[in-house]
Write a structure and sequence with these properties.
alpha/beta; Rossmann fold; 2 domains; 7-stranded mixed sheet; 6-stranded parallel sheet; 17 strands; GroES-like_sf; ADH_Zn_CS; EC 1.1.1.1; NAD(P)-bd_dom_sf
């Protein structure tokens, strides 16, 4: 059996009893080094991003799929063992494990190229242990090859924040040279904004965090205001990254005729009643974003490399994972929070 740092066990964090962050939902665990199945990679974790989905799981907004699951689905690691059926990866390679970790491959959604909608889809850090640990298993068919010459902490947020932000951008139907509004400006938003800007969009950011507004302007946004503010011009498209349902009517009202609002989160607080004339008339559209496909991941990682995407991170040692979640909950994180080995 492969070992991690000469040990037969690995340290990590698991969600024992979901609840508010200050109630201590994460508990330290030590478990045997997982053994890879025929199609699995065993990764020694170099970095793992802390996603808002991890926070939703810890606090109980997402019902747990299994007890005491290790969260974390933005995993950058080195292959230290591989199953006998694995092709495309060797021991020593750097690989990334992301949110989507399995689909049936045969349902009508999978056959149509919409594997993110597969009823049998499975997710890292929800259906199986993730990367808040020293080692993690990742199915090779859902892993991404990653460059050796880049900082692992800067690669980790690309694997969910980046990919989901990219899908949300595409779902928002932003026209060439269009006007994009971004509501909330955390890990995912600050990456999606850069893709939009590289493609010639005008970007307006609306968020409650002064620190996030400053980052948005630094990255090239044309304006940055409060979450409830009206952007300086009508929007062709908007993306809601903040998990705040009260912002849905706010964003819809900011859309121009035929504009589209994409809601990017896996969890959203209740949406207030909508007024048809104010919010939806003139062919405005409201759509959701559900997970991602592997093609989304490949396209985004290629785009990130092509445009030289800038990743802003706040680093935490693995031993401080609870603090990283608490800071994320309190909007104290600039860009993306990333865990690294102690």
């Amino acid at each position: 059996m492969a070992t991690v740092a000469g040990s037969d066990t690995v340290h990590g964090w698991a969600v024992r009893r979901p609840g508010p962050v200050d109630s201590g939902p994460l508990v330290a665990v030590r478990r045997p080094v997982p053994a890879p199945g025929p199609g699995d990679l065993l990764l020694r974790v170099e970095a793992c991003g802390v996603c808002r989905t991890d926070l939703h799981l810890a606090e109980g907004d997402l019902p747990p799929h299994r007890p005491s699951t290790v969260p974390g689905h933005e995993i950058v690691g080195r292959v230290i063992a591989a199953g006998g059926a694995v092709t495309g990866f060797r021991v020593g390679d750097r690989a990334g494990g992301a949110w989507l970790r399995g689909t049936c491959g045969v349902c009508r959604h999978c056959r149509a190229g919409h594997e993110n909608l597969c009823p049998e889809s499975r997710y890292t850090g929800w259906d199986a242990d993730g990367g808040f640990a020293e080692a993690a298993l990742v199915p090779a068919a859902y892993a991404y090859p990653l460059p050796d010459d880049q900082d692992a902490t800067l690669l980790a947020p690309l694997l969910c924040a980046g990919i989901i932000g990219y899908r949300a951008l595409r779902r928002s139907a932003l026209p060439t040279g269009g006007r994009l509004g971004i509501y909330g400006f955390g890990a995912s938003a600050h990456l999606a904004a850069q893709v939009a800007l590289a493609e010639g969009a005008t970007v307006h950011v609306l968020t409650r965090s002064p620190q996030a507004r400053a980052l948005a302007l630094e990255l090239g946004a044309s304006s940055a205001g409060g979450a409830d503010d009206r952007p300086p011009e009508p929007l062709d498209s908007a993306i809601l990254f903040a998990p705040v349902g009260e912002l849905v009517p706010v964003a819809l009202e900011a859309l121009d005729r035929a504009g589209t609002l994409a809601v990017a989160g896996i969890h959203l607080t209740d949406i207030p009643p909508l007024n048809y004339q104010r919010h939806l008339f003139l062919e405005r559209e409201l759509c959701s974003v559900t997970a991602n496909t592997r093609q989304d991941g490949r396209e985004f990682l290629a785009a990130a490399a092509r445009i030289g995407i800038r990743v802003t991170v706040s680093r935490y040692p693995l031993s401080r994972a609870p603090q990283a979640l608490a800071d994320l909950a309190a909007d104290r994180v600039s860009g993306a929070a990333v865990l690294t080995p102690d």
